[in-house]
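Q: What would this chain look like folded?
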Amino acid sequence: MNLPVAILALLISVSPIWSLNNAVVKQQEVEIVLGGQTVVNFQIRNHTSPTLNKTRIYLSQSPFITHPEVVLVDNWHANVTVLGDLPVANAVLEALNCTTDGETSCPLDLHDAFARITVIRSRFLAVLIQIVGWTYFAAWSVSFYPQMYLNFKRKSVVGLNFDFLALNLVGFGAYAIFNLLMYYNSHVKSIYSMENPRSPPPVLLNDVVFAVHAFAACFVTILQCIFYERDQQSVSTKCIILIILLISFGFISVVATVLNKITILAFVTSLSYIKMAVTCCKYFPQAYFNYTRQSTVGWSIGNILLDFTGGSLDILQMILQAINVNDWSAFYANPVKFGLGFVSIFFDIIFMIQHYVLYRDVEVPHNEYHGVDNPNPDPSVRDAESYNVDNESMESTDPIIVND
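A: My prediction, written as C-alpha cells:
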C-alpha cells in the first residue's frame, strides 16, 4: 500500500466526516417556537451503494414534538418536518434504526444522526436571554478592572485583602484549566459524550475566554501588590493552609488519573470543585478586613457593583430560560451554579452596605495619596508628615512666600 492510500485509509478510519455510509444531521441544535415547525435534514455521506438512496430511517418519538415515525431517503437526503407541541429544552430527535432492500441489518452509521430540539414559548424571550447572557459576561469580565485602576492610580494596595487575591488566583486557575480541557481536549470530550450521550457541550468558547481572562487579571493584580505600597498586609496562615489543601486535592486527582483510578473527565470535574470551594470562602477575608479597619478605602466598589450585576443577570437568565422552556430543573438539578451565584450576590450586598452605609463618612488618617483615598501611606512618609506638622506648629504663622 503506497503512502497516499495509507493516509486516506487512516482518515477514513478515524474521522466521522470520512466514515462510509455516515448519516448525519446538518444542524444539531434546533429551536422551534411553540406551535411552529421546522425541517430537520438527514443526509447520507460517503455512500457506497445506490440502494442506500431508498433507505427507510426510523425516528425516535417524544411527547413534546410531532414528526413522522419513518422517513425515506431520497437523493441522499431525508427531510423531517418537526412541530413544537410543548415547551422543552433539548428533546432529542434521533435515527434509531434503518432498513434497506437487500440488507438484513441497518447499513448506515447512525452515530451522528440526531438533533437536539428546543421548543420555546417566545422568540422575544429567546433574544432577551441572549442579551442578558452577553451582558453578564461583559459585567463579570470588566469587574476586575476597577480594582486594578484604583491600585494604579493610588500606587498602593492598602485596603485590599491578600487572602482574597490569593484564593481568587487559585480558583480562576483551576477554572481556566477546567474550561480549556473541556473545550479543547478531544479525549475529555469523547468521555463526556459517552457518559452523557446526545447532551450539549458543557463548555463554550466564551467560558474559556472568561476563565483565562479572569486568571490573567488576578495575576496582574497580584503583581501590583508586589510593586505598589502595602501596609502590613500578607496572606494569612489560615489562607495558606486552605490553598495547600486545595492544591493537594488537585495533585491527588492527577495521581489518581495517572494510576487509572479515575478518568481524566473525573480529574477535570475535580477542578470545578476547587473553584466552588474558593467561591464559598474568598469573600470572608475581605469583608472581615473591612470590618476591622472600619473602612472600605482601597477596596473598589466598582468591582462589587459589576460583580453584583453579573451575578444578578446570571440568575435572571436562568429564570427566563426556565420560563421559556417550562423547565426549572436548573435550580434543583444543578444547585451548585445557583448556590454560588447566590453566595456572590449575598457578599456583594454586604460590601455595598459597608461602603455606602456603615463606613460612608469614616475619615481615615492620611487619606490623600496621589489625589485619591489612601488610608495608610508608607510609615516613613507618615513619620515625616508628623514631624513637619509638629515643627510648623511651633513656628510663626506668617505667610511664607516662595519664589520659583
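Residues 3-17, 365-378, 384-404 have pLDDT under 50 and may be disordered.
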